[in-house]
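Pasting as-is:
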Amino acid sequence: MTIRFVTSNEGKVREAREYLAEPVEQVNYDYTEIQSDDLGDIAAHGAREAFEHLGGEEPVLVDDAGLFCDAFDGFPGPYSAYVQDTVGVQGVRDLVATADDDRARFRTVLAYCDGDEVNTFEGAVQGRIVDPRGDGGFGYDPIFEHDGQTMAEMSTAEKNAISHRGRALAKFADWLAAEPAERKGPR
């Protein structure tokens, strides 16, 4: 069985291949991203739509991720890409600097659709928002610090070892390896 990972990000596909025993194929399809405060709803909708659009024969995997700042009840969360495009990474840092709480987390929800149902798997990594540091990564990586280092200061291997997506992929891999009768319950 081949899992079709619906994303334009080759880095996500490389990371998925590190965790999954099954072959992973990258598929570029621009599914409708619904507006919701819930990453799971967004990813599940995208997985259903992509599965149907791609012919409904091979399972698909979709992810949605965001930066959740404690000082603002999780904002920007599912709106992270829009906020990055409009306010910018430095703008988010400046906003958090006005608050008493710099704690944040990156969260990812993976949605797997095989036609019968959509299963979701969540991963998160805790950190804090700091002044930008580092030249690597992308997005909010320069302002997200985990254990004294921003994601932009980490090598790809270091980042993948603690990443929110990696944690979700590990849960998905365990679920996928289980017997079908055991694939029920929270993830």
